[in-house]
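Practice problem 4.
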């Protein structure tokens, strides 16, 4: 923020100096003048004195402001910069007092018909009073600069966080497709020599699924209904591998179909339940997907037969991916839990309805 080129600042600064000088200097002298009742000429002189003091302070404040904006960087200054600023303020005070007293003799001669030269000691006793004017002005200017600096830092930090969040989301989305393809292609490889027709059908389903993932993964949210189509396609692919060992059921709240969710997040839940649940049970098991809308929240739950256990070779990529995406998109307003209840693993996502 460049105050030196800000017209509003100069207007406020001009009237601020004049009014401050009148309030601190003139009113006090008028109220406590000799004899109780001031003559009209003395009042005119005191008013002129206040205006001249404020006007001179306004003009000389330009020197300090120029130094601050040219050489004094808020948030990045050294001790030498502080010493230089003090030197500039002291230099300005020397100029102020060198010019002020000769200048005040003009209205003194005109209104009071006096030509009194003050002694050096009398002039020095006024130094703290006039120095206070500049200290107050300097405090206001540095406060404005500091507030602007803090706001700028906040804006930059928010921009960096937004860019980082977008980059992290893009990275996580990039992890989904290779992870899904890796599992599916492994299944196809195993079927190629056993049943070419089944492998061909599986490739067709995989192609449809990948087309969906490529077009939707660029989005941060899609409707739950669109996600369900992809999940059903994925389950059909998986049934070719698991055959009768996989039973899949859905209990979908109609109100949830148009709600927005992160793309492929349900697919990751279902994939996780198959990989770490059904595939470890020789007789197979059930996977149930349910959705409920309640208290302005969408709850997605995937339940599978099996026990909650971490494989030594598991990277937990799917679980970490889900948690991270929810955190980036919804912060503390979304939760993901994974627990075992009566020989079943229950994965639950709760997210706000936007």
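Answer key:
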């Amino acid at each position: 923020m460049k105050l030196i080129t800000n017209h509003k600042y100069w207007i406020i600064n001009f009237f601020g100096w004049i009014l401050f000088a009148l309030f601190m200097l003139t009113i006090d002298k008028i109220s406590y003048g000799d004899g109780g009742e001031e003559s009209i000429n003395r009042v005119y002189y005191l008013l002129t004195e206040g205006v001249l003091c404020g006007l001179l302070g306004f003009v000389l404040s330009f020197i300090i402001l120029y130094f601050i904006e040219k050489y004094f960087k808020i948030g990045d200054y050294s001790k030498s910069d502080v010493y230089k600023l003090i030197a500039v303020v002291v230099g300005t005070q020397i100029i102020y007092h060198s010019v002020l007293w000769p200048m005040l003799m003009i209205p003194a001669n005109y209104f009071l018909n006096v030509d009194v030269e003050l002694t050096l000691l009398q002039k020095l006793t006024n130094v703290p009073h006039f120095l206070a004017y500049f200290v107050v002005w300097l405090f206001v200017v540095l406060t404005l600069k500091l507030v602007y600096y803090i706001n700028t830092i906040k804006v930059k930090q928010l921009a960096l966080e937004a860019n980082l969040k977008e980059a992290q989301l893009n990275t996580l989305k990039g992890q989904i497709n290779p992870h899904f393809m890796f599992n599916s292609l492994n299944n196809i490889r195993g079927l190629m020599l056993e049943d070419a027709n089944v492998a061909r059908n599986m490739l067709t389903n995989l192609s449809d699924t990948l087309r969906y993932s490529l077009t939707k993964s660029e989005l941060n949210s899609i409707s739950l209904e669109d996600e369900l189509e992809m999940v059903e396609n994925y389950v059909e692919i998986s049934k070719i591998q698991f055959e009768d060992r996989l039973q899949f059921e859905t209990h979908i709240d109609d109100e949830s179909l148009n709600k927005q969710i992160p793309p492929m997040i349900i697919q990751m839940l279902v994939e996780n339940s198959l990989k770490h649940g059904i595939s470890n049970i020789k007789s197979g098991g059930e996977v149930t997907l349910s959705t409920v809308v309640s208290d302005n929240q969408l709850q997605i739950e995937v339940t599978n037969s099996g026990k909650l256990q971490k494989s030594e070779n598991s990277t937990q990529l799917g679980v970490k991916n889900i948690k991270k995406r929810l955190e980036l998109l919804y912060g503390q307003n979304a939760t993901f839990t994974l627990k075992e209840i009566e020989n079943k693993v229950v994965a639950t996502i709760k997210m706000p309805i936007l």
